[in-house]
Write a structure and sequence with these properties.
Length: 208
């Protein structure tokens, strides 16, 4: 409850109008029904102003993938960002071990992020991040569990600012949800997304 209150805090007069507009666009975005999004506590030390969302790709009572998107804003600009806004993300999903062993998987996952942004016609700069894959093997009292493999994408990029210095955060959120759906193995959302290549359905998604 505290996290939700923090994420939903009123963007009042103490926060720049550009940031207020960017946050409002995030709050009112309409997304595909399989993705549940809610505000969460934003980091306090990365920028003067921050707003965060967390999301899960849901199939019934199971989560296929989850993630977090943070909007940062420094009205004075940031040299490393080359702008006054920055988007930071974490995306996670469970994979089949065979898929996780693919040597090209990190490059493919990174291309999914940049491709999701480009497919929405979004201009962005200074992208950076990591793709991490990990395997878990269980022993002792947990030995009956099959091995599990996970993929984790951590990334950040600078959205191009539009009228009034406000980036199109709604479109960036939609592109981010496209990435979440892709990692989760969902089919494309519509005809315009027919070229998207998704991961195969994972064995045993996580129960909620």
């Amino acid at each position: 409850m505290d996290d939700e209150k923090e994420g939903e805090r009123d963007t009042g007069s103490t926060e720049p109008p550009a940031f207020q507009a960017a946050v409002q666009a995030l709050r009112t975005s309409r997304l595909r029904p399989q993705i549940e999004v809610e505000p969460t506590r934003a980091p306090q030390r990365l920028a003067p102003h921050a707003y965060a969302l967390e999301a899960a790709v849901v199939d019934g009572d199971q989560d296929l993938a989850d993630g977090r998107l943070v909007l940062l804003h420094d009205p004075d600009g940031h040299d490393a960002w080359r702008g006054s806004f920055r988007l930071v993300t974490l995306v996670r999903a469970e994979l089949e071990p065979e898929m996780a062993a693919d040597p090209l998987l990190p490059e493919v996952c990174w291309s999914w992020l940049t491709g999701a942004l480009s497919a929405r016609g979004l201009a962005f700069g200074e992208p950076s991040g990591t793709v991490t894959r990990a395997s878990s093997h269980y022993f002792g009292g947990l030995s009956e569990r099959p091995p599990a493999s996970q993929i984790e994408i951590r990334a950040s990029w600078t959205p191009r600012e539009g009228l009034g210095g406000v980036p199109d955060t709604a479109a960036h959120l939609t592109a981010w949800c496209d990435l979440l759906a892709q990692v989760a193995g969902l089919p494309p959302a519509g005809p315009g997304d027919a070229s998207v290549v998704t991961l195969p359905q994972r064995r045993g998604p996580q129960s909620r």
